[in-house]
Amino acid sequence: VQLQVSGGGTVRAGDSLRLSCTASGRTLNRYAMSWFRQAPGQEREFVAGFSWTGGSTYYADSVKGRFTISRDNAKNTMYLQMSALTPEDTAVYYCAAEKYGTSTEVRGYDYWGQGTQVTVSS
Fold first, then answer.
1. Series of mean pLDDT values for 10-residue runs along the chain (122 residues)
2. HEC profile for 52-84?
3. Are 8 and 117 a contacting pair, CB within 8 Å?
C-alpha cells in the first residue's frame, strides 16, 4: 500500500483545513486507517482513525469536536477535516494504514504516507 498525503498549509487560528490521504496499490478494504501528527520535538501521536471494518471512528481528546475523519472508498481516499485550528495543532500530519489493524499507536501501523505540514499562526 502506498499512501499519498496532501492538503497541508499555513492558516490562521480559527481557520479550517482538509487533508487527504489517497491509497494506491490495493484497496483499503479491511485496513484500519488513521491520522497521526508530530510536532517539533515531540513524539508522533494519534489524531483520528477508522477501524478496519470502517464502521467505527476514533478521535484523540485534543481534537474531538473540531476534527472529522471521513473516507471515500470509491476514490480509495481518507480525509481529515480540521476546524477551529489552534497553534497547538501545528505539526506534520501523516496517514497510516494497517490490514486488520486495531491500534491507535504508531507501532501498530506498517504503511505510512509522507506527511504534510500544517502550520497554524496565532
1. 95 98 85 96 96 92 97 91 98 96 92 96 95
2. CCCCCEEECCCCCCCEEEEEEHHHCEEEEEECC
3. yes
CB 27 within 8 A of CB 52: no
Contacts of residue 61, Cβ cutoff 8 Å, sequence gap at least 6:
none
| 32-61 per-residue burial string, b: 16 or more CB within 10 A, e: under 16 | bbbbbbeeeeeebebbbbbbbeeeeeebbe
- Over residues 75-91, the pLDDT tens digits come to 999 999 999 999 999 99
Contacts of 76 (CB under 8 A, 6+ apart): 22, 23, 24, 27, 28
* Contact yes or no for 29/50 (Cβ under 8 A): no
